[in-house]
């Protein structure tokens, strides 16, 4: 790939991200490389600019990356994370490595890793509300609202009933998202290059099923049987209220999200070990 135009999505509330954006822009100007920048949450601008871009670099933590990934899931452009957060499982390089990494990308010295993303279809029951579709890189979460009252969720995988969970909620994660909320809820860490759905109840009451990993050819169907209030969270980015009887169907996207893997980047399992060592004990 010849790099002709690069975009930078950044966290507008972070002074460090704004400084890094200026460093990136200066590097591109000195080399005559066409570039642009936008806040990671500015979905419409990202969609418009990505159509004529070769790479999107995200300057921030995992939350910033997930906001930008929403647009990349729509417009197939490789994405690179430059970490400014505390953990940064989704980032391949740190802020001090920005300029040499940009030089690698401009020289084509990188590979592409394909990551499975998710599609959620939210289907209202008996209400005058339209169905809606959302895309996620990490996870789709069906959960109780602000009040500490559990919900009852009927969960099926394909044509088969899995369980009726009395729980705080349910996480359906991609392999990339297996290190996030799913892991906190008791799910396994799955190789991010695999294609699977990880289904994990959140604080399930008297449940024999802790977590299951299923084929990407399956559809996970979650029906809200009982809840005082409930919502669907998309990558922790958007919370959508739902009601009793509503159904959330989650399936794998056929087209992957493409991650830029610069030469010399730390392999995932080494990165995992390093990040875990940074966590407070």
According to DSSP, the number of beta strands is 19
What is the CATH class designation of the largest domain?
Alpha Beta
Kindly estimate the percentage of residues that lie in beta strands according to DSSP: 35-45%
Low-confidence stretches: none
The largest pleated sheet is described as:
6 strands, antiparallel
Strand order of the largest sheet: 8-7-18-15-10-11
Helix content: 10-25%
Order of helices and strands: EHEHEHEEHEEEEEEEHEEEEEEEH
| Count of helix runs | 6
> Terminal Cα separation, in Å?
43 Å
How many domain modules?
2
CATH superfamily of the largest domain: Probable inorganic polyphosphate/atp-NAD kinase, domain 1
Tell me the Rg in angstroms: 19 Å
Task: Give structural notes.
The protein is an alpha+beta fold. It has two domains: 5-116 and 256-278, Probable inorganic polyphosphate/atp-NAD kinase, domain 1 (Rossmann fold); 118-252, Probable inorganic polyphosphate/atp-NAD kinase, domain 2 (Tumour Suppressor Smad4), CATH 2.60.200. Helix content is 22%, strand content 38%. It has six helices and 19 strands. It has helices at residues 15-30, 43-50, 62-74, 98-106, 181-184, 268-278, and strands at residues 5-10, 34-39, 55-60, 79-83, 93-94, 110-115, 118-123, 132-136, 139-144, 151-157, 160-167, 169-173, 197-202, 212-214, 220-226, 230-234, 238-242, 247-252, 257-262. A six-stranded antiparallel sheet has the order 8-7-18-15-10-11. A six-stranded antiparallel sheet has the order 14-13-12-9-16-17, with no helix packed on it. β3 (55-60), α3 and β4 form a beta-alpha-beta unit. α2 crosses α3. The radius of gyration is 19 Å and the shape is elongated. The protein starts with a strand and ends with a helix. 42% of the residues are buried.
